[in-house]
Amino acid sequence: MHLWAAPRRNRPRTRGRGPPTVGEGGAPRARTRIPGIAWVSSRFGGLRLLLSTPVRVDVRCFDGARRDAGMRRVEAVSVSAPADLPHDVLRLHAPTACLVVWDASTATPAEVSQVAAWVIATGPSLVCAWGPDCGRVHDMVDEELVGDGSNTNSLHVLTTWHRTETLHEALLFAATTERPGRDTSLVQETLLVVCLGSERWSDQVFRCVADQELLPAIAVFWDWFNENEAELFQFIAGDEASLDGVAAALSPVHEDVSFEIGAVNDGRRDFVLSASGIREAFPAVQLLADAAPAYDRWSILAFRPPRSLDGMVLKLRDWEIEAADVRFRLDLALEPKLTLFFPDYRDEDDDFFGQAAYLLVDCALGEYAAVTLVGRVGRAVPPPDWQSLGSLPELPARLACLDK
């Protein structure tokens, strides 16, 4: 059994505006955060569906090994606007909890009311709201629930909003918090996550649900980072031993996840999360970055960013390779798509040139593009027409043209 606690332990636990609403018989409608959430790790699979509506709607269902403690089945719906919310989704398992992921800051009162009414129509007994101005969504849900006071079922609905938390935290809260009057185990219940107007947030939700077994270790890592970020910010080159704690804190998330710390620039440093060029570690890096808190002096980056190759000299073992001397041939229809031509290439040193090719392409394109768009890189001696080939610093512009 794993125990997850919110990384920022000093924040108030209470959500909601003012005191809890008092229902019939003086029973309060609870609006407070429980101090800890427990669950059993399990890997979820994904199913992508298209509903039979005239508007394209993404629905994904994630139903793991039916955890025997603390985790709802999760269904996620993504639409571009409130008017696109489908009635078809009600044909899925009736949700007992609903999380609305939406930037409601520019929404009209009519749109907020439409979303609130749609959510209530699904029949949940827990409704959570996340995103800018999520308090408006929460308040409108309350108003729609209470109405003229005749709806006694509204007394059994827990409503919360999560303005100061990450999407990662709000999702865990909605998936694991027990509802009022609960008479079934959480694994028999369903959480419906409704994402409106943001593909980026939808992707975060789908990633979180698809790789839930990583979430406890991720929460622990950011807890550790919060406690040590002041010391890490003082890191100077040559004192790499002081970074051993970072590697130890990251290793439970994924053995191939690594990191880089950038130089201080205008009072800020980059903390780069890397998959070490290994595609299987990409989900862990993306989830780590999604769950990162906001910092005043740190920029948290997923994957190594591209760097300029102008004037770059790669020093590897006893070799020095000038990036401008390396030529390339790029054809996305071939395999390998990219071949680098080194002036001193020899077959017996192919392992060395393979490592050099990986480092140079990673620098030129950034880690994500190097792996997802290019993949394996060929190595060879320059052909007779080598002068007609592109010089390696030209690779990013060439790839951008071909990828359009």
Total number of distinct structural domains: 3
Relative strand content: 15-25%
Order of helices and strands: EEEEEEEEHEHEHEHHHEEHEEEEEHHEEH
Spans of at least 5 consecutive residues with low confidence:
1-69
- For the secondary structure, the number of strands is 20
Describe, in plain words, how this protein is organized in 3D.
- The chain is an alpha/beta fold.
- The protein has 3 domains: 2-210, no CATH class; 215-302, no CATH class; 313-402, no CATH class.
- The chain is 29% helix and 21% strand.
- It has helices spanning 109-121, 134-146, 167-176, 199-210, 215-233, 244-250, 282-291, 350-365, 367-374, 395-402, and strands spanning 2-4, 21-22, 28-29, 37-39, 47-50, 58-62, 73-79, 97-102, 126-130, 158-161, 190-196, 258-261, 269-274, 298-302, 313-316, 319-322, 327-330, 338-341, 377-380, 390-391.
- Strands 5-6-7-11-8-9-10 form a 7-stranded mixed sheet, sandwiched between helices.
- Helix 1 crosses helix 2 (134-146) and helix 8 crosses helix 9.
- The chain is elongated, with a radius of gyration of 25 Å.
- It starts with a strand and ends with a helix.
- The relative contact order is 0.10.
Q: How do the strands and helices of this protein lay out in sequence?
A:
Elements: E1 2-4, E2 21-22, E3 28-29, E4 37-39, E5 47-50, E6 58-62, E7 73-79, E8 97-102, H1 109-121, E9 126-130, H2 134-146, E10 158-161, H3 167-176, E11 190-196, H4 199-210, H5 215-233, H6 244-250, E12 258-261, E13 269-274, H7 282-291, E14 298-302, E15 313-316, E16 319-322, E17 327-330, E18 338-341, H8 350-365, H9 367-374, E19 377-380, E20 390-391, H10 395-402
Helix pairs in contact: 1-2, 8-9
